[in-house]
## 1
Amino acid sequence: MGQQSVRWGILATGGIAAAFAADLVDLPDAEIVAVASRRQESAEAFAERFGVTRAYGDWESLAADPDIDVVYVATPHAAHRAAAGLCLTAGRNVLCEKAFTLNAREAGELVALAKEHDRFLMEAMWMYCNPLVRRLKALVDDGAIGEVRTVQADFGLAGPFPAAHRLRDPALGGGSLLDLGVYPVSFAHLLLGEPDAVAASAVLSAEGVDLQTGALLSWESGALASLHCSIAGGTGTTASVTGSLGRIDVPAGFFHPERFVLHRDGRDGEEFTADPADGPRTSLRHEAVEVMRALRAGERESPLVPLAGSLAVMRTLDAIRERIGVRYPGEAVTAAAVAG
């Protein structure tokens, strides 16, 4: 593809789509050529806001547009399988928001479609692309704190969210786990891989989604991860990784940190801070840059957000939901299969 602009299509027009589009506009080698919504008026309003020339009132037209190099799927996760699958089948490359899908079965279907149609596919786990998170992982991988013993992470919002809110709607994959808990789970996976055992407990809403969930993941190495998510209370959104030789503490907003502190046994704490040149901590630009790098290199997945890792995270989320008794409409068979 050379170094010409990568041409993006945006599928959905909600808050995360707008945030991503705003960051794309600031990248000199990115161009948004089309946006799609199920409502023509929404697509047109989004297009006008971001200077996009094509606004589609249906997903199919966007997927069929041959001028699009890659589609960013920004729907609620309950629609990820349908939207990303439509684009992959039409021959488009796809960046799909997290949680990747509702469950591991759907995630596996998307990965299979990407391989069948020889297209690029990546989960939009922007935390993995964050330069400071990458630095943290490199330190852990290099043995800076020895063998990892424990990971702790939390992500909670104060709410309260009304029953009609998408976070309370089972049909939209509501609850704290898929929307917020995916970050602590993905953080633990980043450092330790897929767990060997999963335990969990939750408080459920009247609609049957989780208001808050606590999970304990364990590995045969002896490592443990204690994770928490909530839409019923605002947590510190902190993380900590403890090893046999030290500890790394990440303060508020661990999934897009401004700094973290490395404590090596017997030494003063060493602070690592974000480079101002990397942009605001809330920027989604790093995942966009990684997608464009991979596309130009002819890669079909990103080494920063590998598909095997996204599938493993979905299996863990499935296992947690099995333990806490959360089912989404139409997936009873899948949930039963996970029990094994």
## 2
Amino acid sequence: MSRARTARRIAAGAAYGGGGLGLVGVATVGLVLAEVQFAKRTVGTGLPDPPRADGLYGSEFGGPELSPGPLRMGMLGDSTAAGLGVRRARQTPGALLASGLAAVAERPVELRNVALSGAMSDDLDRQVGLLLDGGGPVPDVCVIMIGANDVTRRMPLTQSVRLLTAAVRRLRLAGSEVVVGTCPDLGTIEPVYQPLRWMARRVSRQLAAAQTIGVVAQGGRTISMGDLLGPEFAANPREMFGPDSYHPSAEGYATAAMAVLPTLCAALGLWPESDRLDVSRDEDMLPVAKAASAAAGEAGTEVTGARGAWALLKHRRRRRVPAEELPEPATAGPAGAPGPAPLQESA
């Protein structure tokens, strides 16, 4: 059975009830997840709570009292969204994305991060409530990163997708654009060995593809987190992963943020030619399930709905400019958090 077909089955099960794990048997999945849990215990976390990064970024573009006021951004999800493993607020993915969005929009961005370390998709309803039920303005855009804990704690994939879809629907009905970073590739966890590493990768990609189908159906966009993200993590695990060998380092979060930022800007109409296909980058319009399957296997790939059962498969990912090419960073956000490095087209 193809990955696209498996993703359709999981997404259909999320929408209508029922459904299973597709190609991966229950006994095999239990073995995989036991190994992943062992890996997590082996590396241990022992990490302090992530720093709070809420606040105004890009204040050089004007204060909150100036019209049209700041863009409002919400950050939801698990420890990856919260920024577990870094010491400074400016190193968290929320701060990096808010700074980057402010630079592109030339407008301040007010960030509120309600992500929770250890969260599964069943916590998203609470997190959405924190953003929407306080009587304040609805976020212009929300970024969700979720899924890894659903896999390692054996939440049925159909339930995981159903909970995420409900959260996206609620945010979209409130008027917020939504970008979802899909389930990362758990096959990159170093203490997980073959053949279980291959199986962990397979389950993760099944969930990521099914998440994409559900999110796109609600008018959201997804960006594949894959192996967080791409060859840098595979080639430089000591640099890209933090001290627990499970969560990204500051460099790893920066790499992930640079992959999400173009899609975040495109969701708000701030990216030039945001939804035009670029055949030179192997972009295409595909049936949603095929686009979801392709994205799950290639980190940094965006899927956004086009028309009917079709979706755009976009490769918006940019590389960071080497440090020697960078100008002095502008200050932005709480405690003078620097903005992210400028972006260039990938080679």
## 3
Amino acid sequence: MNLLINELYKEDIKHAATLDLPWEKLSGKTVLLSGATGLVGSFLIDVLNYRNAEFGSNTKIIALGRSRQRIYDRFGLQGDTDLFKAIEQDVNDDLCPELLSQNADYVLHLASNTHPLQYSTDPIGTIITNIIGLRNMLDFAADKKAERFIFASSVEVYGENRGDTERFAEDYLGYIDCNTMRAGYPESKRAGEALCQAYMKQRELDVVIPRLSRTYGPSMLKTDTKAISQFIKKGVDKENIVLKSEGNQLYSYSYVADAVTGVLYCLFYGKSGEAYNIADPDSDITLKDMAKAIAEYVGTEVIFEIPDATEAAGYSKATKAMLDSAKLKTLGWKADYDMKRGLTRTIDILRTI
């Protein structure tokens, strides 16, 4: 799919790329990102490419992914350029000589299994990417003496709400039963954050950790099996929205443009060693209300269906998970897309490509 020709998507990129941020910090620098074709990574690269094209930022981008051709296709390129290099690298494997020969000023580890079907069908890969893949990226950043490292963590580190708070602040820790297959994702994110702290101490690496809420947007992958992604796909096709539970789960969400600007605020302004929640109260919603909103927008209905065992195994057990983003807002960040705007925008963009 070619998002880059869609006018609404280009507006989103321009909006993020023209925020009043200290972009000069990236001028003449090299930014390396894992998960380059993923939901968040691809949008962020689009923003950096825009800065290079429109403002002459001269920021070199090194995009890591498991398929070099998929990277070129996603960004409309025939091959590498002076300011863009694609490297085929599974971050869980030993880093290839091509990557090791590069230098980077900023390293962002954005690669991760992030949806239920991956959790249930590839639980080993889910854990390894958040620990071994992260270690490989941390080693690279430390060896290259990078100025800053970003580890994209998750709302899932908070576990289940114990009923003692309305929203998760960064110092909250809820309950996770670690002796389950589904625990692989949140527990490995927790372990990954601890690993970042270890590298700060032993390797003197500067690390900031954005904790993303459930993120959605037009740059999502076709294989994404998160509930919101499935709802959006049905909406794009003008089909009935399939709800596979009573839908009472209450979560925080972020439109991808807001998630990426949150990551940028962490990159530019975050305090080393700190974690920052990325979420907005205007995007807190139950699954059933989200399904209803999409169905009403596209003129279909919500229907209920029992999930199969494989699907159910990957579902989060948390029934209430809302993030407190006050800490990130002290850095100057704010969300610009509430739930209604983000959902309708995503559907409208995906319908045209």
## 4
Amino acid sequence: MNKRKWMYAASAAVVILAVTVFFNRGALAMLGFDWFLEGHVEKQLEQTYKPIDGREPIPVSTIDKNQDPFSVLLLGVDQRGKEIGRSDTMIYTVVRPNDGDMLMVSIPRDMYVEIVGKDKEDKITHAYAYGGAGMAMDTVQKFLDAPINYYASINFEGFRNVIDTLGGMSLPIEEDMINDDADHEKFVIKAGQESYNGQDTLNYVRYREDAGGDMNRTERHQIFLGLLMDKAKQMNQWSKIPDLMNIMGENFSTDMRPQQLVDLGQSMLQAKDRNIYSHSLLGSGHRLKNGGPWYYFADEEDLSKVQTMIKSWLNADAPASSLILPDKYTVNKVKEVGSLSSSEEASKQ
């Protein structure tokens, strides 16, 4: 079985707080968790709170600080100026605070689905363009037959700034990557650089013009998030948390209140072992019979398995050992305080 890198991540900056805060309590202890929870940090997060008109977040049960599993739709948004933009990346995420485990299901941007609220079928990425985070949530909920408690989105400007604040990224680019299709944004990423800035890194995860198309694009997402996690775990990155918080405040949107974000950090830090499981929805791409745009169509068997898996993960009474996993998945195991292990692929058939 070929080793594969960790999955999904054009919107990895959306979960940079999970990467840099929730999964490394040893480094947090050095900073002082009390410092991190000071009121000014919560205040910085206030501007990220952007509830959706007409949509109340689905309540999550909390008993004595023990929180039930909940779901978050993570969105990486291609937004320019004041336009709404479109979701370049969509990841349905289940967080189990008491177990310390997370499930991330990546939805290909060209997936052919019913756009809820538009009475039409189209690429799932267009749901955000038509109706913002609210329509994206409604569409994903129906497609996966699963509830969404919250959303969290970051725009490309925030993505670039996060990478630049972390001092750039080392990327495995052996040949120049040239995006020059008439329908795509034009850029060139030069191979062999020791470090790539935020713009080059963004272009790396968005590049689509190789023979593998969106499948290879997903592979690059896997590589990127593994590298980002390695970068974030470095001890000298923790001094940059205030800068990262500022970037989140300007470019990050969620209907999760600041105190909820802080409480989530606390509950995740209490877990002894933390695992992140991920799966990318399977399918195939082709045009409709009457021609037109290229679409990605879900593999119905895989989709059904994913829907069952999500229900298992959202079951508060299900112990971590009984959670349903797809036939093939990627898991990032976090076992030791202050450290992150390398990713590993697993198969259960």
